[in-house]
Design a protein that fits this description.
This protein is an alpha+beta fold. It is built from 25 helices and 23 strands. Strand 8 and strand 9 form a beta hairpin.
Amino acid sequence: MPTLRGLLVRIVGALHRTRAELELNEELETHRAMLFNENLRRGLAQEEALRQANIALGNTLSITEGVREQAGLPGLESLWQDVRFGVRQLRRAPGFTATAVLTLALGVGANTAIFSAVHALLLRALPFPNSQNLIALWCRQPSRGIPRLPLSIPDYFDAQQQLRSFEGIAAYWGVEDTITGIGEPTRVQGITAFASYFQVLSVTPILGRTFTADEQQWGRHHVVVISRSLWISAFAADPAVVGRTIQLDAEPFTIIGVMPDAASVLNPRIQVWIPASAPPDHPPGRNNRWMHVIARLRPGISLEFASAEFETFMRTLGNSYDEDKGITTYIVPLQHEITDERTRSSLILLLVMVGLLLLIASANIANLLLARGTTRTHEIAIRTSLGANRTRLIRQLLTEHMLLAFCGGSAGVAFAIGGVALLRRMSVHPVPRAATMALDVPVLVFAVGITAVSGVLCGILPALASSRAQLHEDLSTRTRKASLSRARSALVAIETAFAVALLIGAGLLLHSLYRLETVNVGFSADDVVVAEFDLPRAHYPENVPRLAFVRDLSARASQLPKVRAVGETETVPLYPGNQFWTGFVRQEQPVASWEHVPTVAHVHITPGYFAAMRIPLMAGRDFSEQDTPASDHVAIVSEALRRRFFAGEEAIGRRIKLGVGEGDWLTVVGVVGDVAYELDKEQPPIVYTAFVQGVNGVPSDMLLVVRTDSDPHLLFSQLRDQIHQIDHDLVFRELTTMSEVLSQAADQPRVTVTLLSVFAGLALLMAAVGIYGVLAYTVTQRTHEIGIRMALGALPSHVLAMVVSKGLRTAMWGVAAGLVLGSVTARLLRTLLFEVRPLDPATYAMTVGVFLAVTVFASYLPARRAARVAPSVALRHE
């Protein structure tokens, strides 16, 4: 009996399917007849009309097969059928598919590449246990105009004993040393740190140990910990390296440990760590501030509580010591400390801008899908006639659109691989953790997320619009609805708004970069070589041997062919991380306490420095050979210092002092022009002193500045030979040209402007394509109307103007919204702009002009096609 019942069920099901197929065949024949009549009405021959009807019917039969496959299939099987059908639909429109995939790939690829940089530099946790508890401690001194001030060694020792919010506190500062004894002399960057440094970071060596508190004592400090990279490159990863001796600046140091790569995260170029120590006859003062201080919060202690305790601590020190009066404090997470404020602002800005680019891409694809939806009205009608409800249609269409989005996302990830490699090469040197930018798991999850979001954004409106198909209407006509036209125009307006906002941002930064690169730096950078070197204290411990070396090197460099002028200094304008500040006192205006001592830059130079840099002498004289240690100590001041401290007075002959307390009084003998030490900062007041007189000591690290009549790069090898002839163990830290220094000073804003300009150009192109697509559709829709106008006497120029004016009207709504959005976006740029206001009228006017010009060009192409339509052909068109 069960077998007989099953047989009856199958027979009844077959009869139902047969009946459904007969009804479908009748409807298809009716549809064939309607298509045939429509083609005859369009003026086609009977044979051609029948052929076109059969082609359309074949497409319809393919659709019905898809409907049959999907009918009654639950769950994953139904979804799989949707995917298969969607793949077939995309393969039937390769041009559309390629355009949409490429558009999305550009948007997703740009977002993924920029997010990889944001994740690596801003979001990824530091490679230390509980790294969220690591902070950096800083001070300010508003009364002296100092926004960022390190701690002194005595302040650090007091903080270690008195602050209770921290598990540990450590201090360090950067050094550069020459390694000898392992081949050619090599310059390496290092850190001088107290023993608590590694404990605070909670990092352990992979070989050996770290230094102890006992090894911070002078005379016992000749131990060194090296990085894993130096261990591999210089010692071939020899496990017996612990215990070996190397020479650092001509002093013997014993290797006691090898640190993992994580220890260099604060600066990937760090290769050695040595214990901090000070000679007993030179105790550090509280006004000698150069130490970076880090700490680890105790569990349960908030950043706010620790900040309040640190502020109270420094206020207490200010009550006891004049050097600490007026000092305030602030603390920041260590993760924020390793990336400077300008880099963080640039990355956040770029992430916002590529987000706008993805929205433009999504709007563009939504426009394409709306246009394509009007060509599928017959398909939707047939599916509806076969029983598909609206929810089923939306699901099928969204499946197609998501499939399209994930194809674009996959291509975008491929683009992002190249983008990440490009960002690594473009990263401004040195940017900590720039080498860690990669398409790791969090970045790929982000890519999948934005791909899904963009798929929904670009697919939901076309799916809703296409699923409204009406059987009677859509089987009898192929015209698009006015509501779809309005929707497409609205999407173009949205694209335009976002594109205008991007163009405004790029324009403001481009204007700012132009101002930055054309700022008067106060010197001539052409044909100047800058050679940085450091004299080892073991061989050059005092002023006399250092001065002898300076004279010898200057004399040798002066004898080289094509050399015009030679000078030596401890810093040059725009050179990274090499500016020295000190207190300034006039003899006629004594200062009551250190808190009120103004701050100026202090630079040691030799007599040829101003000639080599072509810094103009405004008044008085340059240093000369008559300025000796035995003569009166003299100084030359910059024009900015004269304006600030000697306004309305004669500066020449005045007596000044650097610092407070003991020290030499200097007689001002000259005034020179201002120079820029940072392109986007005001030119500082500077006091120049003569190397030979050793004011505040002769520095051990120096820069040789040489002006030549030929290509400055030709001097590099000759200068290396000269320094080796004086001391074979010496090498230049850096050999570069002043033109390269000047160019590198604008590297970071230049990178930001370049990337933003590329994104703005893509946005402009996408918006132009959107305008072109809407107008091309409009021309096709209104061909019959255009024919009537031309038959009634309208000239081609009238038709051209009508179509172009429609494009301009569509764009103007977007331009108006874009100006508002751009003004809001410009506020994000405030910290990145130099001598340019966020609401710069010239930039906004130029942006509008460029966009309207592109709009006219995008409108002209379909307008010209409309103007060339013959009235007889247009009148037959439906």
